[in-house]
Specification:
Elements (H helix, E strand, L loop, with lengths): L2 E4 L7 H11 L3 E5 H5 L5 H10 L3 E8 L7 H21 L3 E5 L10 H17 L3 E5 L10 H11 L4 E6 H5 L16 E6 L9 H8 L10 H9 L7 E3 L4 H5 L2 H19 L12 E8 L3 H10 L3 E6 L4 E6 L2 E6 L10 E8 L3 H10 L17 E4 L5 E5 L8 E3 L9 E10 L5 H10 L4 E2 L3 E5 L2 E9 L6 E6 L11 E7 L2 H10 L9 H10 L4 H10 L2 E4 L4 E6 L6 E9 L10 H15 L2
Parallel strand pairs: 1-2, 1-8, 2-3, 3-4, 4-5, 5-6, 6-7, 7-8, 9-12, 13-15, 17-21, 22-25
Antiparallel strand pairs: 9-13, 10-11, 10-16, 11-12, 14-15, 17-22, 18-20, 19-20, 20-21, 23-24, 24-25
Helix pairs in contact: 1-11, 3-4, 4-5, 5-6, 9-11, 11-14, 16-17
Length: about 600
Amino acid sequence: MRTSIATVSLGGSLTEKLTAASRAGFDGVEIFENDLLASPLTPEEIRTRCADLGLRIDLYQPMRDIEAVPQDEFARNLRRARRKFELMRRLGADTVLVCSSVSPLAVDDDALAAAQLARLADLAQDFGIRVAYEALAWGRHVHTYDHAWRVVEAAGHPALGTCLDSFHILSRGTDPRGIEDIPGEKIFFLQLADAPLLAMDVLQWSRHYRCFPGQGGFDVAGLVGHVLRTGYDGPLSLEVFNDVFRQAEAAPTAVDARRSLLVLQEALGAAAPPAPAVPTGVAFAELVTPDTEPVDALLAALGFARTARHRGKPVDLWQQGEARILVNTGPAVRRGDTQLAAVGLRSPDPVAAADRAEALLAPVLPRRRSPHDAPLDAVAAPDGTELFFCGSGRWRADFAPLAHAPAATDVRHIDHLALTQPWHQFDEAALFHRSVLGLDAQESVDVADPYGLLRSRALSNADGSVRIVLTVGPAPTHGTGGAQHIALATDDVTAAARRFRAAGGRLLPVPANYYDDLAARHDLPEEELRTYRELGILYDRDAYGVFRHCYTQTVGRIFFELVQRDDGYRGYGAPNAPVRLAAQHALRAVTGG
């Protein structure tokens, strides 16, 4: 199916938006009037630029407050429309969006609205233009798609049809099944947007919080299915008003937008990228560091042993149980803080996983490898983390074994990875991990940070052997906003914490007030509470089980978490996150690091 995007959905100048849309693979664009007015290019130059980029101008928008107004006002509207139609002819656009009126002059008179829209369509037809009438969710008198269709049907003009917008329909809770009663040839245009489910004024919701399909809580695919069953054969077009998207670079936002439509078409059966090869486990987590000493000391205290070294690169393999940490100090390492740079995912079919990633606009990264290196393909997540698709354990043959003392036995495997996202890529990252990797996403959670709210969203495979938590902080300059962490699964967090501390490791101190509250909320034995106080162990419980966890202090941008899940606990200790964040801020204020 053809795809299009409204220029208002992207940030930057009109030229930057058009270039980004073309490079992302869109077939067409909707030119938003404000973008044209602010552009130094003439309509003819914009038309030529679009043609050179392989873009069709599918829609010009918006034309507002046209119908159901007094005759003198309507005469002024027709004069305005004539000038816009002349501009559209120069631009090469043949469809205009007319929004249902919000003017205080508009009256509740469908017959008058139909008659005036028919006269507008007469004028448009003289210019070879079609009029697509859309019901705004906050329209003064017309605010549902079925009402807009009744007006269009009453007008009975061949150049007048309707525009359906998923946000305007779904934000009001309107049943979309009635769309199938509209003839497909009278649906002149389809605009798509998702949104988080919020209890707020619909105009503000629309203007600031729309997102791309699959990133919110609406059943956009279900609505599109109803539209397609009418015989509609126009483009799937994105119209997304979002403060974050408009402040971000146009190019990656356009790729995110196009990916959302590819995933939507897959859900509709209209496209068939390779099926997800859902990862079955975490093969390794790779840290890059300019200084190995504090990292090595932290891993050793956690009970890891340095078991092998890469045969051709300065990369060490540390292992305990099935948890594997790579420490990379190569010349290509950015001379900054220690951070998580890559994750190896065990894949049932690495080739299929890479093929799906490429089909969803996440190309395989070029890599320098020797003839003897394992053929590992990797793609970049939106935050730049490299994700490797690992088959059997063949990649470990790239490492030469080292003589080492036995590792401890506290840690069994990597429980989850927490990746802090750039502020403008949180929704993009969630869609990426869900669509490219085939992980299931939980609802977003807001967590109180001392400097604002932190958003968090967890994704996992069906059995929980792969868990990734995406977070975005309110104020990265305050010290913890850019931190990442690796959670290590243990059967006895108390023993693991004691062993870590005895080996010289430093646990994150937790305020005593937390344990007073814990005693009030849960009837725990006093001895157990004393142990938790001593070691900084946090406690949570859900409908399925119990979660005990504690944290190391941070090295660079990395800290570790020791977690004990009992009886099927499914969460991540989110109720304890505000305490952990405050403790990290307090420690940073004292230590300066």
